[in-house]
Fold this protein.
Amino acid sequence: MANLRQVGIQQLEKLRDLYSDDLPNYCKEFHCLATFLELHRKSPQLGHVKVYALPNLELGLFVIVDRYLLFMGCKESEGSEGLLEESLLQLDWFEGQQCATMPVRYLKAATAVIEAKQLQIELNLETSIVMLSKESALQFQVEEPKGFRLRSLSLKDAHVVDDHWAYSQPGSLFLMQRQILFHTSDGLLAALQVKESHKRRGFGALIVKEFARRLALQGQDTTAEVDKENQASGALFKKLGFRVVEQCRWLVTEAPNGDFQWPDGE
């Protein structure tokens, strides 16, 4: 019987280390845990973020609820799928939830819970996790185009990023601001978007190269997630030498009572 309990930073560290021993097989779970661990260190009182796990951490089962986003992970073993389903059933799902992109091995358990909660799926998106080694990234030569300068994002850029992000929605601005403010460096390229007026000029490739190069200098590989229907993005990463290491799904359930309610300021 699954018995989820809320855990803290020590358990997060143990779970991250557990998944780090089996990369790239569990890269999605590793990056998820690494991100929230870094966020927790920089802001111990993360509002509206709850991390759950089973008493036996060796099972690798965790569920993270971040406002309307739900992240999950579980080491594959006999009975692990049923254990994950039991764990997800213990959550109230807030009358609707987004399952942040998850490896397809969790799809059966997640959809079973969605059906049991009598929720409707609004979006079912197929994505691929792609990875580039630090050794390959160090070979990139990055040159700023004339009239442009590469720099890190600041908080004042968050509105521009959110306005042009293909998956922008109520509440995503707060997520962008948080990522920029805490400047997490877990090796994951989480969002890549080029303004329509600047497409087909090589800016997307330029950003990916520089991002990967900076991570490589820190000793990290680069991981990104690509919508399978976005052929241009897929071609870009393939051309730069990224290889597919995981297949994922992004599920969004409808909120029965209308739009999700957001805390003030978020």
Remarks:
- The mean pLDDT is 86.
